[in-house]
Amino acid sequence: MAHSLNPRYYSMEYLHGAPNRLPPHQDSEISKERKECLKKYYANEEERRSVNEEFASFSACLDEFASSDSINDRGKMPPMKWWVVHGSSTPNLQRLALKLLGQPCSSSCCERNWSTYKFIHSLRRNRITPQRAEDLVFVHNNLRLLSRRTPQYKCGEMWDIGGDDFDSMDTVNGGILEVANLSLDEPELEGVIFDDEDEVD
Questions:
Q1: Measured between alpha carbons, how far is 105 from 82 in angstroms, rounded to an integer?
Q2: How does pLDDT run across 58-69, given as a tens digit for each residue?
Q3: Which of 52, 59, 67, 155 is most buried, judged by most C-beta within 10 A?
Q4: What positions does the domain HAT C-terminal dimerisation occupy (predicted)?
């Protein structure tokens, strides 16, 4: 959806930059997914129709979007700034665009999940089914998030090296950083072999 609302992908510089480039509103797959996304964002049919009309004005360079400044700025301004400057005539679409385009694009969350999955599904524990490993990754990440709400997170052993208060580490334990040993391994279960999801030998 954010791809459809990025004015850069409608600019002449982008479209002429490589052969066969289409603006997002002319790509059938992107249009189909955009419509599905709008159904989820706007359950009310009247609101959705209003947003679709606003999107039509934006994508076809109609009404306020037909000005030369609006068209020229599409490829030159950052998307959020472009929407702030030129999107006031379509308040619903502007609000949605600022919300979606303001999200950081990063794969770090996925990479964190992959490293947790690699830790869980190692050579020692290669008999775990993919669903069980996925469930363990889910539980591990939720426990990590829940641990941030506990008082020990801020005043306990510092295990999040390089976290939010990295500068304050010099004052902890006379400059010596203690690292907690966090593990998914349970000592009493290390010798147990899991044959199936529910059976334990």
A1: 18
A2: 999 998 899 999
A3: 59
A4: 62-143
